[in-house]
Structures are given as C-alpha cells and as structure tokens.
Amino acid sequence: MARERIYFDNAATSWPKPPCVVEAVQHHLTQLGACAGRSGYREANEVERLIGDARKQIAYLFGTHSLEHVIFGHNGTDMLNLGLHGILKRGDHVVTTTIEHNSILRPLSFLKKHLEIDVTYVPPGEDGRVDPATIGEAIRPGTRLIAITHVSNVTGAIQPVEAIYQIAKDRGVRMLVDAAQSAGHLELNLSETPIDMVAFSGHKGLLGPLGTGAMILQPSIVPELQSRRQGGTGTKSEQDEQPEELPAKFESGNANAPGLLGLRAGVEYIREQTVTALHRHTMQCTAQLLEGMQTLPKVRIFGPENLEHRVGVVSIQVDAFDPHELATALDSAFGIQCRAGLHCAPMTHQHLGTIGSGGTLRFSLGIFNTLPQIERTLEALRTILK
Ligand code: PMP
C-alpha cells in the first residue's frame, strides 16, 4: 500500500492537482494531440480555443479583460527574465529588495555585468515586509524599474505592492511584480492597480502542471519591452522579423499545450471555488501549524506575527538541528514532505542570519492540506525534538 504523503512543498510546486487539471492534460495527450495556432483541423482549433480560454481565465482572475496581454512561458523564471531583460537598457538603475528569489537576483546580476545596470537592494523591516517609503527613497534620476516579489518564498511575508505601485506611478518608474507565491493565494486586481508587468508560475498556486508560467502586461509597456526569443508564431510567416502583435511578440515556438490546458482547468477551478475561500482554508491550517510550533522547544519561527501579513509559508529553524536532517527525518519516518535550505533566496537568509546554518526548514501549505495533517505534523515534530 502506498504510504500517505503529507505534502508541504507547495511553494515549489503544488500537489496534488485537482482532478479537472489531470483530466485536461490527459484530454490533450489522448484526444487532441495538436499544436495551437498552426493548423486548421478540428483538434488544432480546439487547442487554440482552449489556450485562448486559459488567457481569459487568468485575465479575469486578475481583474482585467485584455486577453492578448496575458503572455505564456515555461515558468515564473522565464517570465521574470522576459520582464527584466526585455525592459532594461545599458546604465539603467533598478530598485529591488533583499527578499527576492534568484529568478530576480540572478538576471539582475547578469545585467549588472553585461549592461552595467546599477541595482539598489532595499531591506525589509523586522517582520520581513518592505516599507514602501524605503522604495521611494531609493528612486533617483535614471531609475527605470522597481522589481519586487509580492510574497517572500521564505518567510511568507506579503509585500505592499499596491502602495509601492502608487509610488512607481507618481515617480514615473516602471514596475515588475513577482507573483510566483501569491497568484491563486491572494487577490491582486490589476484594473485597480495596473502594475506594468506581473509574472508568475502556472504550477504553484494556480494549480497547473510544471512547465507553465504567465505574465500580464499593461498595454503602455508593450512597445518598450523587447522580445527575448524570436521564432515561429504561426502568424505573418512571410515576414523575417518577429511580429509586433500580441501575444506572438513574446511567444515563439510551440506552446506547452497539455500544460496550458491543465493550467486553464486549474484557474477555472480556483475561480469557481474563489481565491478568498481557498485562502481562508489554507490560512486556517497555517494558523494551527504556527500555534502548535510556538509550543515546541527550541523552534524559531520566521515571518510576520500578524497572520494577515503572511501566506501559508512557514519557515523555522530548530536549535542544534540541521534543517536538511530534520527534513529527511520527517519524510523517512512520517511521510511529511517539506523543504530545507536557502530556497533560492540567499539574501533573505543573510537578513535572517540563517545563511551559514543550512537555511530554514520550510513548510509551504496548499489548498489540499487538512487540519488532521497539521496535527500529525506537530506530533511528528514533538517526537523528533524530544
Ligand atoms: N519567484 C519566487 C518568489 C519563487 O518562489 C519562485 C519558485 N520557487 C520563482 C520566482 C520561480 O518560479 P518557477 O519555479 O516557476 O520558475
């Protein structure tokens, strides 16, 4: 009999996926089988229609209606690279923070070296949240972009991106938000807060398969944003240059059709259940986990104390325990799966003081975790830490 997995690695990729996602992927693999936007037979048209509907589901989830401004790619990293490489020019100044994932930090390091851009790294406050005023103070003549995550993938701290957007708008600076850890978990209404570029994974909170990512663009940034990949789009094939139309400008080569059909089903599922209801459930489990952990000896919990300022990502360190050893013990003895290490966010650990001690042990909750699973996890931790 397969042992029960208690999966707490949803910040890496969500699991399990709802049955409708599995069925949608299977439907493509077994029935449709075709590429999108290339051919005119029935199945190809159906794939094209469903991918168009995936754009619609995502646009509506974020409160917008312009489907062509939803761009698909391989993952969150791919979309962030498009945003950063596509907008920055030689000598530009960028304001970012020390809580970013390597998918922002590394492209910026590359651009520092190759395009001589200059980067200011703003630290968060004690609770892991960045004060918008500190972002404003870092803006100077030549600042082209603010690049910030919506939620830290280490501490779960929610960043005030709406307030930061107001500053960006007032100061005439473009803004890129990494919504990898917030998409599907938190509402972000882009009609009210039209952030220039919002990039995210399709395979985390949006419940799609691995190999999917998306970015929502504001129309005004499109002419300034260069494509990063050129190639076949199935449109204007007689032309030797990349078409300027959306989404073709940024989508070359065959799309991951099974993945995007799965993503379409995942987002539809979220919209039916509502982000608010799903998040309420995840946070109920998170609250119970945090409460139980506070009673454990030698455990240090990171991130905001105020539950309203965090999502279901809980990072801890335990005195005298290596986070990797703890992760292995939880998995091998109890089937409890979480992640140890730096979680690709090294500067966050410099700030937390955990860089030299193996990082943190991270429990990232998803919509399918349950209160009994939390109880079993706390029991397992009590047993190991005895
Ligand atoms: N940003 C953040 C905050 C993340 O947590 C992650 C994934 N760990 C990414 C970006 C990269 O997303 P992907 O794995 O889809 O490339």
From TrEMBL:
It catalyses: (sulfur carrier)-H + L-cysteine = (sulfur carrier)-SH + L-alanine. Signal peptide: none annotated. GO terms for molecular function: cysteine desulfurase activity; transaminase activity. Keywords: Aminotransferase, Pyridoxal phosphate, Transferase. Its EC number is 2.8.1.7. It holds the Pfam family Aminotran_5. Coiled coil: none annotated. Residues 6-376 form the Aminotransferase class V domain. Its cofactor is pyridoxal 5'-phosphate. The keyword rRNA-binding does not apply. Residues 223-255 are annotated as: Disordered. Transmembrane segments: none annotated. InterPro entries: Aminotrans_V_dom (IPR000192), Aminotrans_V_PyrdxlP_BS (IPR020578), Cys_dSase-rel_unknwn_funct (IPR010969), Cysteine_dSase (IPR016454), PyrdxlP-dep_Trfase (IPR015424), PyrdxlP-dep_Trfase_major (IPR015421), PyrdxlP-dep_Trfase_small (IPR015422). Belongs to the class-V pyridoxal-phosphate-dependent aminotransferase family. Csd subfamily. NCBIfam families: am_tr_V_EF2568 (TIGR01977). This is cysteine desulfurase. The lineage of its organism: Bacteria, Pseudomonadati, Planctomycetota, Planctomycetia, Pirellulales.
